[in-house]
Design brief:
220 residues, 10 helices, disordered N terminus, disordered C terminus
């Protein structure tokens, strides 16, 4: 029987990839899966491209050709993880809720829970606290893909749900949400529950939206 699989986004049958491209995509996923597993097991600083290639059952030159360098593999690994993570956050933001702030708090809570249960994130955060892991900058300090992707997603949601505020204010609120959420993931306050942290971040964002503006004090 002919394969009549369909894409998720439409009713059109999925187009079969050429064999070479299908192999390349599978190889790339296998390498990233191997890298993710090894980073979670022993920390990214202890993982070499040769070890990843061996685990993925491909040659070391193949890994270099696809990713360019260890840094390229790091970026690809974090980018894939971020894309999956942000898809979940987007779905959480779209869940029905009594108010926009309730929806926001629920989505932030989802993000905090997912980060706590994500083996790669847990490994990176644990290693960073010991001062050893090289993946942390890709999750925090380097804007692409985590910070930029999250900010764009949250900014769009804020603009849609808080239309009475100008884009400057909603952009600022989105930035606060992303930065505080990342901060709570990397350095969670010991006295806070996840729900408490989500409520605090939501309150901070709402405070940015609602704050009064006026003349700056003299000298500012």
């Amino acid at each position: 029987m002919e394969d009549t699989s369909f894409t998720e986004a439409s009713n059109r049958p999925a187009v079969a990839l050429p064999p070479r491209e299908a192999w390349r995509r599978k190889m790339r996923d296998d390498v990233l899966d191997a890298a993710r597993a090894m980073a979670a097991e022993k920390g990214w600083d202890s993982v070499s491209l040769s070890q990843v290639a061996s685990r993925a059952e491909v040659s070391r030159p193949t890994v270099y050709k696809e990713f360019g360098s260890r840094g390229g593999l790091s970026r690809a690994l974090v980018r894939r993880e971020a894309e999956r993570f942000l898809i979940g956050v987007d779905r959480a933001l779209l869940q029905p809720a009594p108010t926009a702030s309730d929806a926001l708090a629920a989505a932030i809570l989802y993000a905090l829970k997912e980060a706590r249960e994500n083996v790669l994130v847990v490994s990176v955060v644990k290693a960073a606290r010991d001062g050893t892991d090289a993946l942390l900058p890709y999750l925090t300090a380097r804007s692409d893909p985590v910070v930029t992707g999250a900010r764009l997603l949250v900014r769009s949601w804020c603009q849609s749900h808080y239309q009475r505020f100008d884009t400057v204010r909603t952009d600022q609120a989105a930035d606060v949400i992303v930065r505080l959420t990342l901060s709570h993931i990397v350095l969670p306050p010991p006295e806070h529950t996840l729900r408490g942290s989500a409520e605090l971040i939501t309150a901070a964002a709402l405070g940015v939206l609602a704050r009064e503006t006026g003349p700056s004090p003299a000298g500012d």
